[in-house]
Amino acid sequence: MNDDTPSEPEDEYEIGYGKPPKQHRFQKNDGRPRGRRKKGVANVKTLIREEHARMVRVTDKRGRVRMRPNLAALIRQDVQEAYRKDRVRERNINRALEFDAEDEAHAAAKTQGALLSEDAIILRRYLAPAPDASAPATGDDEHFERFDSTQYEGRDD
Asked: DSSP states of 105-137 as a string?
C-alpha cells in the first residue's frame, strides 16, 4: 500500500443545515450529548395544580358517566363520606371552608385597606386649612392657577 495517498474518512458525515461539523458540535465538558437541555423540574404546587385540573370519569347514582376535574371529584367524595358520619372527612371539609373564609377576609381587608388609604388622602386634602391666596403654589397644586376673585368683581355676565 502506498502511504503517499490521503486516506478517505471512515465516517461519511454530511455537513449542512442542522448538521454542524463533529469537532464543533458540542462545547467541552457539556455533558449533554443529545443537544437540547431538559426542561426545569416542576415544583410541588405546579404538580398538585396539574393533578387537580386533570379530568377524570365520574359515575353518578343513575349510572351516567361524566368528566369532572379531579379536585371536584375528590371534594364530592369527601362530602358524601362526611354525610355518612366520617368525622375525619367532615373536619377536613370544615378546615377547607375556614381557610377559604380566611382567604376571602384577607383579600377583602387588603381591598378595604387600599380604599381606606385613598379615602384618607382625599379627606386630608379636604380638611386641610385653606392655602393663603398670596402664597405661591406648592405641592400637588403647582399645575393649577390660583383663583383671584378680584378680577371678576363688578362683572355681570
From this structure: HHHHHHHHHHHHHHHHHHHHHHHSPPPPTTSPP
CA atoms within 13 A on the CB side of 10: 0
Q: Each residue of 41-77: pLDDT tens digit?
A: 778 888 888 998 999 999 988 999 999 999 889 888 8
Percentages of the chain per state (helix, strand, coil), in multiples of 5: 50, 10, 45
- pTM for the whole structure: 0.38
**Distance from C-alpha of 124 to C-alpha of 128, rounded to nearest angstrom:** 6
Alpha helix (H) ranges present in 30-156?
A: 44-53, 70-83, 87-127
**CA nearest neighbour of 93 among 105, 77, 107:** 77
